[in-house]
Amino acid sequence: MAKVPDTPENATNCICGECPSFPGEGGFFCAKGKGAKDVRRRGCICTDCKNFREFDLADGYYCADGAAGDGPQ
Ligand code: SF4
Ligand code: SF4
After folding, report:
1. Ligand 2 centre and the CA of 6: distance in Å?
2. Fewer CB within 10 Å: C terminus or N terminus of the chain?
3. Cβ-contact 42, 21 below 8 angstroms
């Protein structure tokens, strides 16, 4: 069960498109899960995102590691 509700409102908060590690497609990875493309880890700006604070997230790099709340964390 993902910790971030997959709603249009939450999707609009996503700032992945401004991130140096953005894999080029997709976004809202904390709810949608990781993207199809490999990620070069050049920093994660999730900590600047409204959803990160609102849903008390901790990790980042959801584009590479999968959605928040998936698996052991
Ligand atoms: S926490 Fe990260 S992946 Fe989730 S909406 Fe914000 S910028 Fe996008
Ligand atoms: S999940 Fe984090 S590392 Fe990946 S694109 Fe979004 S802000 Fe960047």
Report:
1. 16
2. N
3. yes
Q: Which two tokens stand for residue 27?
A: 């976004």
* Cα 23 to Cα 1: distance, rounded to the nearest angstrom: 24
- Locate the domains of the chain by residue range: 8-65
Report helix, strand or coil for 37: coil
pLDDT grade for 69, boundaries at 50, 70 and 90: confident
pLDDT digits (tens, 9 = 90+) for 5-44: 999 999 999 999 999 999 999 999 999 999 889 999 999 9
- Mean pLDDT across 55-68: 95
Residues 23, 65, 47, 11, CA torsion sign: positive
Q: Which of 32, 53, 61 to mutate to test the pocket of ligand 2 (most atoms within 8 A of CB)?
A: 61
Instruction: Determine the length of the chain.
Output: 73
For residue 33, the one-letter residue type is: G
